Structures are given as structure tokens and as C-alpha cells.
What does this fold into?
Amino acid sequence: MEMQLGAMLHVYKGEWGLPSIDYECLRALCLLRFTRCPMDVETNANPLRSGAGKLPYLQVGNEKFVGYRQIKRVLDLEGYPIDVRLNAKQKHLSTTYADWVFTHLHAYYHYFLFGEPNNYDTVTRGLYAKRTPFPFNFYYPATYQREALDVVQVLGGFDINDKIDKHEAEYLVMNAKKCVNLLSSKLGRKVWFFGDTYSELDAIVYSYLAIIFKITLPNNPLQNHIKGCSNLVNFINRITRDIFRNEGYSSTKLTKTANTTDDTLTPSERKFLESELNTKIVAGVGAILAMGAFAAWRGVYNQLTTRSSGDYDGIDYEDDELEEGLD
It folds into this structure.
């Protein structure tokens, strides 16, 4: 079964080399890329056009399907189920593990991105504001903060509006670290969590961990813990590099150091550096031509002034004095 022509998935633009800054958008993208569903993706999306004020949303003709669950249901019906290669036991385990991951990482994700005041004020708010059209960017990021309030109250047991010393962040960190340890043990040396085939669990784990691992927050205790799990780091980097190699985005300027070789660069980084070099070359040529044109103009001007001064029997004029002052 083929997706209807013109179907488009709308998501937030990425950062840190990822295809999206948002967990919900990222796992919706995983549905598409893991199953190789032929669909276009719009990253300059307006969440207010979804009808529910949220991203991601899938538009098929005049119909809009908002949120991961609705998008997954459409793809399942269109013949792109993500767990199609799993047997019955593996499908059950995938759902069980996914629910367990949700209970241990969802509150951490929402608290440290939207609930922790310094993280939200210095990083997260700006990320979402830059991807929301004016003037909605002034208030729209706060909707995620209000959502985080509910999530943390239910799963974390405290109110993010309380003073910071009353935030039980240690409890969230402890649960998240336990989850990461179990996931690392479950993955082992396998490519995917169920061996040689992808699953919804892979999409969910990647979407949580990739953002937590890549985002640059002032306070993010789980980031270093993930770094200590080399197989999970390889899992994140492999999916980012191999599956989203043409969709990763980073606003940070890349610089090529003396120790950096072409072999260590991703295709998107290499393309960026090549375009940057071409820009510098064009700018340099333009500067040389401008300097040459100015020098030629000065030479012609000096010849004209010298020739005209010989016709006046050595009389000094104010223009000649001004020219001497400029020289």
C-alpha cells in the first residue's frame, strides 16, 4: 500500500546534529525512516497550524493527524508498522520495555528540559522560541513548561513551581540512571534491542537518549552517565549518522582543527566545510578585485591631477593641498 501523494510530516527543526529538538517529533521521524515510508518532512513547521497547537502532525490531503500515536496508527494502516518483523513474544516485550522506559525517563526529560529553571531559561525556551513564528514565540514555549508541571507531579511527585530546594530531582536522576543501566545491559553488543531488526523500543530509546545526550544544558546529570555506556553512545551515533545523515542540523559553526581528518567528518559536516571554504574564496577574490579597482582609480586620478597642474605655471590651489593631505 502506498502513502497518498503529498503526505507530509511536520516537525521541529533539529540541533546538535539531530533531525529534531523534540522527543515526540524525533520518534515520529524514526517511524518514517526505520520503515522507509516514502514521505516528505517539513522542519520549518508551525505548531499552531496543527489544529491542536502541537508538533508533530501528519497532513494527508486535508486531514491532520496530531501526535505520535495518531501518526503511528496511520502508518500501521498504510502498511508501515514498525514492529512488523518481531514475533509475538518480542512485540509483547517491546511494549513492556517501552512502558518501563516511559515511567523512568519521561519525568527526567520533562523536568530537566522544561522544569529546571536555569535549563529552561538559558537553553530550552530559546530552542522552541526560535522555531515558532512571531509573535507566538513569546508565549508558546511556556505551554511545554505547563505540560512538564503535570508530568513531574504525576511521575516525580513534586511541583516544579515550588522553590528549587524542594525539587526532588535526585529521585528522577536515580530512576533515569537505573533505566540507562538496564537498557545498556539489554542492548549488549547487538545492533538493535531485538537483534538484527528494529522495533518501536529502539525508536523510543533513541528519541529520549539522543536529546538528553546531545543537548547542552547547564544541569544534566544523566548526560555523563550515558557517556559511560559506550554501547548506548554507539547506538545513538549510529542511528544519527546512518539513518538521519541527511537530516541532522546544527546551528553551531563547525571548525576543522589540525587533528581533524576528512574520515572523521559526517557527510553533512564535510559539505558544510566545503561550502564555507567556497564562500571564503569568493569573498577573497571579491576583496582583491575591489582593491585592484581602487588602485587603478587612484592611478588614473593622480595622472589627471598631475597633468592638469602643469598648465597653471606652478600656482598652488586648495584642491592640490587637499590631495597632498590625503596622500
Summary: The beta strands are 8-10, 40-42, 57-60, 63-66. The chain has eleven helices and four strands. The mean pLDDT is 82. The first strand starts at residue 8 and ends at 10.
